[in-house]
What we know:
This protein is α+β, with helices and mostly antiparallel strands. The protein has helices at 35-48, 53-57, 84-87, 111-119; strands at residues 5-15, 20-30, 62-67, 88-89, 105-109. It is built from 4 helices and 5 strands; from the N terminus they run ββααβαββα.
Amino acid sequence: xxxxxxxxxxxxxxxxxxxxxxxxxxxxxxxxxxxxxxxxxxxxxxxxxxxxxxxxxxxxxxxxxxxxxxxxxxxxxxxxxxxxxxxxxxxxxxxxxxxxxxxxxxxxxxxxxxxxxxxxxxxxxx
Length: 126
């Protein structure tokens, strides 16, 4: 791995209320990739992965930084609901111009589901 490439863990979130999420590790992600292209790479990897079918057919549209190495983690086990303006990655951004570093965890989810979860953080069991 060179200095231009990163290892990133993607937390694919299918359901916030049911805490239905899986991790997908991306290796050799170029720092000069823009976020829109990163989403395409993630979608391709999801389709090729061994994730269950509901994860492969769901529509994801938003990337948010969950955890940067050596920084504090959120208390919420599903997603960090704070600092959306800083942590949500915009399509026109380039990875190198964000706070994403090697071994960063990024959540990938549907924004409408996230807004619903943020307004009511209850967890449904069963």
